[in-house]
Design a protein that fits this description.
The complex is a heterodimer of chains A (about 110) and B (about 120). Chain A is an all-beta fold. Chain A has no helices and 11 strands. Chain B has strands spanning about 5, 10, 20-25, 35-40, 45-50, 60, 70-75, 80-85, 90-100, 105-110, 115-120.
Chain lengths: ~110, ~120
């Protein structure tokens, strides 16, 4: 089974900061990596699919990159609405797996 | 507008059973793979199961294999999760979601979730 490891598990940042979250797969998953945002009490929301494709309606300050085993999600200029928990997820093969999450908090 | 509405959650004793339902609307349900994802209180997301458009191809997490069954009724635009031999560690919010595909698979639209509590 493919394991997903995110880092950091949490971070504190200020509005306007550039933030990068990384995700590592235990084996190559090509570009089969997705990113989700979740706010407390809400369902997750798809941000980036297939490593680097911005989901419709998602602000352009979000971007994704990587392939193989190493991936990243970058928020170019953090906005108040971006404080949330972010998850990566591999869809290369079943069983699908999520990273443990990265909580982005206000500094 | 895509809508996914889960129901059937509640309190059940260890060893008991529960059937979750998910009513889909706003898209052609029979053309999409569907999935269940769960989240234990204060924890991260855990993938549970995937189901092919025609209901004949299924995948399960090891943690639920042999106890949970995913199914669908395309005539009723509904997805189901039959959960048997429930354990305390199955306590979670269960989300129904639509799977999308564009050069790779991803979880596109999500329901609001239904809470399952396994406790004596």
């Amino acid at each position: 089974d493919i394991q997903m490891t995110q880092s950091p598990s949490s971070l504190s940042a200020s509005v306007g900061d550039r933030v990068t979250i990384t995700c590592r797969a235990s084996q190559s998953i090509s570009s089969n990596l997705n990113w989700y945002q979740q706010k407390p009490g809400k369902a997750p929301k798809l941000l980036i699919y297939v490593a680097s494709n911005l989901q419709s309606g998602v602000p352009s300050r979000f971007s994704g990159s990587g392939s193989g085993t190493d991936f990243s999600l970058t928020i170019s200029r953090l906005q108040p609405d971006d404080f949330a928990t972010y998850y990566c997820q591999q869809s290369k093969s079943a069983p699908w797996a999520f990273g443990q999450g990265t909580k982005v908090e206000i500094k | 507008e895509v809508q996914l509405v889960e129901s059937g959650g509640g309190l059940v004793q260890p060893g008991g059973s529960l059937r979750l339902s998910c009513a889909a609307s706003g898209f052609t349900f029979s053309r999409y793979w569907m999935t269940w994802v769960r989240q234990a209180p204060g924890k991260g997301l855990e993938w549970v199961a995937n189901l092919h458009e025609d209901g004949n191809e299924k995948y399960y997490a090891d943690s639920v294999q042999g106890r949970f069954t995913i199914s669908r009724d395309n005539a009723k635009n509904s997805l189901y999760l039959q959960m048997n031999s429930l354990r305390v560690e199955d306590t979670a919010v269960y989300y129904c979601a639509q799977i999308g595909y564009s050069s790779g698979w991803y979880i596109d639209y999500w329901g609001q979730g239904t809470l399952v509590t396994v406790s004596s």
